[in-house]
From TrEMBL:
Residues 56-252 form the Glutamine amidotransferase domain. It catalyses: 5-[(5-phospho-1-deoxy-D-ribulos-1-ylimino)methylamino]-1-(5-phospho-beta-D-ribosyl)imidazole-4-carboxamide + L-glutamine = D-erythro-1-(imidazol-4-yl)glycerol 3-phosphate + 5-amino-1-(5-phospho-beta-D-ribosyl)imidazole-4-carboxamide + L-glutamate + H(+); L-glutamine + H2O = L-glutamate + NH4(+). L-glutamine binds at C131. It comes from Helianthus annuus. Keywords: Amino-acid biosynthesis, Chloroplast, Glutamine amidotransferase, Histidine biosynthesis, Hydrolase, Lyase, Multifunctional enzyme, Plastid. One of its GO terms (biological process) is L-histidine biosynthetic process. The active site is at C131, H236, E238, D279, D437. This is Imidazole glycerol phosphate synthase hisHF. Transmembrane segments: none annotated. The lineage of its organism: Eukaryota, Viridiplantae, Streptophyta, Embryophyta, Tracheophyta. Its main location: plastid. The keyword Phosphoprotein does not apply.
Length: 582
């Protein structure tokens, strides 16, 4: 096992395979104060690994931090593949394919890894491919192609079709139909697991003998394959909570004496997600705290006007994972003025959170090109890469996406140079969220402005019947000449994979989501939309899912103030017949 490098001696006990998620997180939060940057030190990135080591093929194109964390959580060392021989000599090989298919095959072919992988798999050596690590086994992929794969399994990997009403990318917790003795999926039948992808392989007579489970998203697609010791999954076990850890444990520790209760669930389809959001910023003492605004004002209405402090970021994120959050989002809300790579504690918060939280983590704030005081230039891609390396699964872009959309709408030209375009090209659009911060502007007539407006459900202060939603930048400080509708459509074209739709008017008010706004945007785009701002009770979640096409709902204040537990929200949704992950 890798020695942890945190200063705190208690921390070294946290990664044993025998601890439950609950006890582990309890220990974690009791032992370290996450407000104090001085208590952090950076963990070594790769381990040497002895005989018990798991060999990991990381070809350098994306975020594989999550799978590293999951392997270490299960108590195993990691040996990184350096040469094709490392593949051939592996005792147990994991290939977490990330990025784009063509780029991946190019790297694997150039450095001889593709051939070694083919040989390893043909010899029936223990293999687990994840996501692209499943797709590469097929004959070819249509992603930027056709591009040839390893050709071990008959079939072509194609794109999901959004014309049948399914949002692409397929993001979220969907159910598995396990249809043969799959070994690693034996204990998790009918559970939700986390998918994030736009391309998929479909079952056919030719590949039928390989298929161990399927999933439905508009069509039946292959969610896992197994033949002998060769396994591959389209979903992300390292992001699928206890169910995912159980799958990894079965592959990595097949002879483990730990008997775990089967985690069988009642999943039937893509679940609606409940997301906990942590707005993070430095308070007046220099500590990074979770804060929460009222209509984006995060300062207390007291004489000292101090920043509202609702807790420690890593502890709260860990708690929300235990409580059943389907995702956790961190928004570095002063990122627009502070350079995030100078903000090491934010990166450390991500690192420590991702060691123990096995659901997707999104981070936003300050993702843009930046030149520091010494004249050193950092591209937005570098900023995003640092976030991914620190454990983020998705990054969220706010202000910079507004500027990119304005430019695109003005010229009609995709320059490929905006942060949004660059990051989605390298990491895939499923890894890029655009966070919109609109403010409602009432109108007496829908023709008063050149932006898309709605007939509002509640009249404006002067009896206005219409409103448009003006986008803002810099944490709501500056209104821009673009509406939320126009922005959403533009960023979808520029490569956003998901939209986080806030509403400044509703933020922190507890009066419910802005249904008019969420309906407008979720009907306008074919990528998933996360409804945000205004949740005050469980009924607000069922309302937003019943009345709009939102794929997920996010809340902050009610969870931080412990007014409504995440589980109560989910129980309520289940009672209303809305499928959620349990
Ligand atoms: O512009 O790329 O640097 O990103 C900045 C990010 O920080 C954006 O995503 C922006 O939404 C966020 N942000 C900036 N200032 C604030 C602020 O509050 N002063 N927070 C802020 C936005 C809104 C939600 C909130 C929901 C739910 N926070 O994330 O969590 O409204 O709250 P509720 O359930 O309590 O109503 P860039």
């Amino acid at each position: 096992m890798e020695a942890a490098t945190l200063n705190s001696p208690q921390f070294t006990t946290l990664h044993g395979p025998l601890r439950s998620r609950r006890s582990l997180l309890k220990l974690h939060s009791n032992s370290i104060s996450f407000n104090s940057p001085a208590k952090f030190s950076v963990r070594a990135s790769a381990t040497g690994g002895g005989d018990s080591a798991v060999t990991l093929l990381d070809y350098g194109a994306g975020n594989v931090q999550s799978i590293r964390n999951a392997i270490r959580y299960l108590g195993l060392d990691i040996k990184d593949v350096q040469t094709p021989e490392d593949i051939l000599n592996a005792k147990r090989l994991i290939f977490p394919g990330v990025g784009a298919f063509a780029a991946m095959m190019d790297v694997l072919n150039r450095n001889g890894m593709a051939e070694a992988l083919h040989t390893y798999i043909e010899k029936d050596r223990p293999f687990l491919g994840i996501c692209l690590g499943l797709q590469l086994l097929f004959e070819s992929s249509e992603e930027n192609g056709p591009v040839k794969g390893l050709g071990v399994i008959p079939g072509v990997v194609g794109r999901f079709d959004s014309s049948n009403g399914c949002r692409v990318p397929h993001i979220g917790w969907n159910s598995l139909k396990v249809n043969k003795d799959s070994v690693i999926l034996d204990d998790v039948a009918n559970s939700h697991v986390y998918f994030v992808h736009s391309y998929r392989a479909v079952p056919s007579e030719e590949n039928e003998e390989w298929i161990s489970s399927t999933c439905n998203y508009g069509i039946d697609f292959i969610s896992s394959i197994r033949r002998g010791n060769v396994h591959a999954v389209q979903f992300h076990p390292e992001k699928s909570g206890d169910v995912g850890l159980s799958i990894l444990r079965k592959f990595l520790l097949p002879n483990s004496s730990i008997t775990k209760k089967p985690l069988e669930g009642k999943a039937t389809k893509l679940a609606k997600r409940v997301i906990a959001c942590l707005d993070v910023r430095t308070n007046d003492n220099g500590d990074l705290v979770v804060t929460k605004g009222d209509q984006y004002d995060v300062r207390e209405q007291t004489k000292d006007n101090e920043v509202r402090n609702l807790g420690k970021p890593v502890e709260l994120a860990g708690q929300y994972y235990i409580d059943g959050a389907d995702e956790v989002s961190f928004l570095n809300i002063t990122g627009f003025r502070d350079f995030p790579l100078g903000d090491l504690p934010m990166l450390q918060i991500l690192r420590y959170t991702s060691e123990n939280v096995f659901v997707p983590l999104t981070v936003g704030g300050g993702i843009r090109d930046f030149t520091d005081a010494n004249g050193r230039y950092y591209s937005s891609l570098e900023v995003a890469s640092e976030y991914f390396r620190s454990g983020a699964d998705k990054i969220s872009i706010g202000s910079d996406a507004v500027y990119a959309a304005e430019e695109y709408l003005k010229t009609g030209i995709k320059t490929g140079k905006s942060s949004l375009e660059q990051i989605s090209r390298v990491y895939g659009n499923q890894a890029v969220v655009v966070s919109i911060d609109p403010r409602r502007q009432y109108l007496t007539s829908p023709y008063e402005v050149g932006f898309k407006s709605v007939k509002v459900s509640n009249l404006g202060p002067n009896g206005e019947e219409y409103a448009w939603y003006q986008c803002t930048v810099n944490g709501g400080r500056e209104g821009r000449p673009i509406g939320a509708y126009e922005l959403a459509k533009a960023v979808e074209e520029l490569g956003a994979g998901e939209i986080l739709l806030n509403c400044i008017d509703c933020d922190g008010q507890g009066q419910g989501f802005d249904i008019d706004l969420i309906k407008l945007i979720s009907d306008a785009v074919s990528i998933p939309v996360i409804a945000s701002s205004g949740a005050g009770k469980a009924e607000h979640f069922s309302e937003v899912f019943s009345e709009t096409n939102a794929s997920a709902a996010l809340a902050a204040g009610i969870f931080h103030r412990k007014e409504v537990p995440i589980q109560s929200v989910k129980d309520h949704l289940l009672k209303k017949g809305i499928e959620v992950r349990i």
